[in-house]
Amino acid sequence: MNKSVKPVVSKLLGSVLLAACGTGAMAQPQAGPSTTGVEFRNTITGEIMNLDEGKPGGRDTEAVKVFKQTGENKYLSDKSCLRNGENLYLTSCSGCHGHLAEGKVGPGLNDNYWTYPANTTDVGLFSTIWGGANGMMGPHNEDLNPDEALQVITWIRHLYTGPKQDAVWLNDEQKKAYKPYKEGEHFSKDEKGQCKPLE
Ligand code: HEC
């Protein structure tokens, strides 16, 4: 009996809902933070952060969508993104963390020691960039939009010089292929990939 009743009921329900609310309203329960697969939490307070706040743009790229759903950074090792990430890192981060992320007033980001172990995942690192940590490590969501933050992460991961087995952010295949930055290495503005040259 179920077999014959169900389709009729759901069809009926569907058209009633459609008539009552229109398709926009029906889509609503799925919109908002609940469709975000990943929760981004402030590194210090643990509070959930709103990625809609901060510098405009860089929210509807494929990579940001995937990152918000799965925590996977699709830019890792993409040369066009490394090129952008280097520039963004040099503008926003290297003054405190050093040109090679070797550490200055801020801690080194190129070794396997992390004050906040969550930073060994790209979601954790993103959260620290977005919401800041203690003292001079302020939030960077006013100078970087989410897509740019992903590009900076890509660059920081490329500067890593520690043991490969501690590179939690790489899967086994990526670990095998991983080659850290070499002094003098240059990524040109013609590099093909997912990231358009910065404006
Ligand atoms: C004004 C100086 C300053 C700037 C600019 C700055 N940082 Fe920091 N950063 C710090 C300090 C100081 C700490 C240590 C804070 C703490 O331990 O809570 C820190 C901590 C961090 C940590 C935590 C490291 C760990 O071991 O867990 C990360 C990740 C980080 N910064 C990334 C960045 C990135 C990426 C940028 C650029 C977007 C940036 N920082 C810009 C000063 C700075």
Automatic annotation (TrEMBL):
SUPFAM superfamilies attached to this UniProt entry: Cytochrome c (SSF46626)
Pfam families: Cytochrome_CBB3
PTM comment, free text: Binds 1 heme c group covalently per subunit.
Keyword annotations from UniProtKB, A to Z: Electron transport, Heme, Iron, Metal-binding, Methanol utilization, Periplasm, Signal, Transport
Subcellular location per the Swiss-Prot or TrEMBL entry: Periplasm
InterPro entries: Cyt_c-like_dom, Cyt_c-like_dom_sf, Cyt_cL
One GO MF term attached to the UniProt entry: electron transfer activity
UniProt key word Transport: yes
Signal peptide positions on this chain: 1-27
Domain Cytochrome c as annotated: residue spans: 80-160
Protein residues bound to heme c: C93, C96, H97
Principal location: periplasm
GO cellular component, one term: periplasmic space
Single GO biological process annotation from the record: methanol metabolic process
Biological function: Electron acceptor for MDH. Acts in methanol oxidation.
Record's protein name: Cytochrome c-L
